[in-house]
Amino acid sequence: MRPREEDAILNEISAITATEAKPVEFRGGFDPPFYQSSENLSGSRKSQSVVSNTAGQLSTTEALTSFLDQYGLKGSIICTCCITSCCYEPFKRQQHALRNGHFLWKVIKAAALVELNAAMNDQLRLQTLKLSLQEDQAKHCLFQEEYDGMVAQLHSQNCQLQHEWEEYYNQSQELKTKLEDCCDVIRDLRSKLKKIQQMCHTELLLSQVSQKFSNNRWTS
């Protein structure tokens, strides 16, 4: 019967300390209870499970006082252990929450740094692209100026050649007209020369005939 009575007393002690005892204040950081060995932690967990399983079996404080009178120091030690264990669990959860909060903050900060790094890399790539675009635009402007200059030069040369061709064409037309006039003059001169040759030939024949006639006349 003693183990059952001890379990019941432990349950009653935990109920009393949960309602009447003040919360224990711990120092900042991880207190020594957090660094307990696994055996102590397992023992405290076993005692808590035993206390929770035997809850509600004893409801009077007379059994508690008689048990404390009977067992004395052992009961007070068990009571102190139970109080410490009950106070340590919220503290442990709080410390875990703080540590998880720190870890979460570090993760968020690392994610923010990663995003910032990616944004900076994107900004650097954008700046590089802007510089390359400006260089390409400057080269394009230079090529455009050279192209415009070459086009203007070729246009002026084309205009000059067109003007020279027009002058040459006009001169060729004039020479063609003069050639046609010269051909007409030569044709006229040839016709006149032919007429003159015919007249000369006729006169020669007449002179010969007259000469023969005169000779015949003198002979007769």
From TrEMBL:
Q: Name one GO cellular component term.
A: TSC1-TSC2 complex
Question: What GO terms in the biological process aspect are recorded for it?
Answer: negative regulation of cell population proliferation; negative regulation of TOR signaling; regulation of cell cycle
- In Swiss-Prot or TrEMBL terms, this protein is called Hamartin
